[in-house]
Amino acid sequence: MLFNSFAFLGVFLPITLVFYWILRKLNHHSFAIFALAAASYIFYLYGETIYPWLIVVSIVFNFALGRWISVSKGPKRRVVFIIGIAGDLALLGYFKYAFFFADNLHALTGISLLDHSIILPIGISFFTFTQIAFLVDAYRGLVADANPVSYSLFVTFFPHLIAGPILHHKEMMPQFARREAGSVLESLASGLPLFAIGLFKKCVIADSLSPFVSALFAQASAGRPMTLLEAWAAAIGYTMQIYFDFSGYSDMAIGLGRMFSINLPINFNSPYKSLSIIEFWRRWHITLSRFLRDYLYFSLGGNRRGPARRYANLFITMVLGGMWHGAGWTFVLWGALHGCYLFIAHLWQHLFPKARLGRTVSWAITLLCVIVAWVPFRAENIAVTGNMWLGMAGAHGVAVPNWSRMGALLRETGLPMINMVFGRADVAITLAAFLACILLPNSQEFVARFKLGLDTPGYGAIRAGAASRWWAFGWNWQTAVVSGLIFGVALRYVGGYSEFIYFQF
Amino acid sequence: MTKSQFLVALALVVAVAVCVPFDLKQTPLLAEALTRGNKISITGNSVLSHTSRCDQDSRSLVSILANDLRQPVLDLSFNGQSLSEAANFAAVSLKNPHIQTVIFPVSLFEFVDWDTDPIRTYALFRLLNPDLDAASLAERAQSPGRFSGQESGLHAAFDYDGIHYPDYDGIKQHYMSYERDMMRCPENDGANLKFTAASYHHLLMQFPILDKPLSLVSSLGKDAAQRRKSLVVVILPIDFELFAKLGVPGLEALHAKVDHVVQTLGTDGLNVIDLSASLHNNDFADRWCACGHLLETGRQLTAERIVQRIPDSTRNILDSTQNVAVYYH
């Protein structure tokens, strides 16, 4: 079920809210948690019709092992822990990577292990990562709670289930255990404005960018050499689309969580304002960065084994982070690129600790690197990536849009024109989205007074000072009008089929 | 402000924002339809604005018409305009005291997926044109496109000749972009002739002509007659030659469909110009899409034949050297 669907907005959400809050107000705390877990599973069933049982098996498996590990001692504990991690990785490996490896093996050796791709269960990457973290923490002795219903809700809680944020049990279990019901009105009045912002970002901005970005990448996929403006329009358009799509989803998730009086971790903090690639990864998909840092980078040794090993660990972490998004060489390339960027950034800091490039130059270089890296993330394959990159470098020439003033002048000279698949409106939307990214406060800053979402230690205080600014939302008529308008406008765009980009991961 | 007051205010603003039938594309155009000082208006889909990169003459059909009529024409057309939208824009322009003639070009396939407005636009149209014989609110509310305005039949996936074709978005992405890419000058029948044949079958043969859009156009004609204005319905050209050449089954049935439309509208007293079989294969552009886009020769011939049927009272013979403006949107 999509957040931007009438089934969700008109049926599922109102019914779930009413049931949940009635149970909470009647002091049936356990029933309320159970009802929310059941509703979350129904939410999952609505979209996952092929492997609806898989998430249940995964929850039972991880909960049983995690609980056993957290209360046991002795050498068997390590064996059970390894079995648990291996089981999770095997599940993810089979569904997500088996065909990729089989396909590459076939290309290299001619041996055919799988002749068809395997349908990916919805949200598998998210619910597997969430539970790997749980097992690791159980092994480290950091897991106290052992309530199966709360655990089930922790994994399946519908706002985050399909596309994150990736939750940590330490920040969720205490909230599920809290017996005070809280205020319904406060929860709704806090959550709705952020949900409205997220819905607007997704339905109005990201979905408006989607058709022309898709059309341009389709041209590249068809093998047409992309000219300079086309390639840059596609790359910048996608850079904006994925941000508004994914951060819109995260805003909706956090807003929805708050409607149930549950705070989810913040996932975005104006990533395109970053002044370095290191900062970018503290602002983009924060909960994934946190997971990769805590459970992969640190497990590889982090920075404790010297600079060379540190850079290698960074690179490996980013490549695996890339592969987490999808089984394909384009994702490997995207991860490797970011690994290289981070390597260069850290090396630069190490070699020239006092060097300063200036804010504008630093920002421009960072954003340029990010835009270049989004190309393989969106492209179908490496060949399409190459086509786009060559286009961005000007290797396929410069063609002017027919609709531009320059186009009109050139047409009169009789020069052949290229019919570009983007128009003035596409350029205007992309430009407006770009300016919004870099000039406006982000969603969390807008709703800072409501104290929505959880900050992640080590990733910066996101809302510092924002609550006192004149534009900060509050429970006043200005906010009611603004958030009502953006909600209403976004609802007018609801109805067509438009899946969130991160659903595929 | 208390939290409950805040929530009530927010809900009210949401309701207003959702229900107000303001539309960035249609509202300004409706205002122009009501107020511009032209004598002639025209509605329609992309056939009216399309030009080919292979053309020497880059004027659209509307531009050529304006030139041939020697007066500006109020262009109310836009890409993807449905029959329902066209009828409502035409009806609004009939209320404009300056407009004497409305040219109403229609592609045959518009008599299938004809009513695609989301409910709020539908409500606005009903408010503006209560006498038009449109779908009832109950019918509209049951349609799959009631909120999104998306078309149903012609936008859906389909099978033809053993091949499964995706929905319109998929076709645009996988087939149309390929055809555009492969297109050279002079234009040909398409790079993937199986897809071209499937397009003709899907757009022109797969679905029957519906009665409701015919009665909508008839009611528009009655409205024009009551106002002592003229409505000129144009059945736009169809590439029958290509249809036959590709071996798409049902050539006679296709002719029969056109005859049915022309006879029904003619019986209702409308001035119908049937240009369906007026052009040859090499007068058409983008033949692979079966959407009736025209090359310059096709546009010139079509404009010429429409002008012949425009009532003399509307024609305003100006000095032939005078420049003619067309209002584009």
Largest sheet of chain A: none
Tally of individual helices of chain B: 12
Q: What is the rounded Rg of chain B?
A: 21 Å
Tell me the structural class of chain A: mainly alpha
Which CATH first-tier class of the largest domain in chain B would you pick? Alpha Beta
CATH fold descriptor of the largest domain in chain B: Rossmann fold
Topology order of chain A in helix (H) and strand (E) letters: HHHHHHHHHHHHHHHHHHHH
How many E strands of chain A? 0
Helix content, binned percent of chain B: 40-55%
The oligomeric state of the chains shown is heterodimer
Report how far apart the termini of chain B are: 45 Å
Global shape of chain B: globular
- Judged by helices, strands and strand pairing, the structural class of chain B is alpha/beta
Lateral strand order in the biggest sheet of chain B: 2-1-3-6-7
Which spans of chain A of ≥5 residues are poorly predicted at pLDDT below 50?
A: none
Properties at a glance:
heterodimer, A: 505 residues, mainly alpha, 20 helices, B: 329 residues, alpha/beta, Rossmann fold, two-stranded antiparallel sheet, disordered C terminus
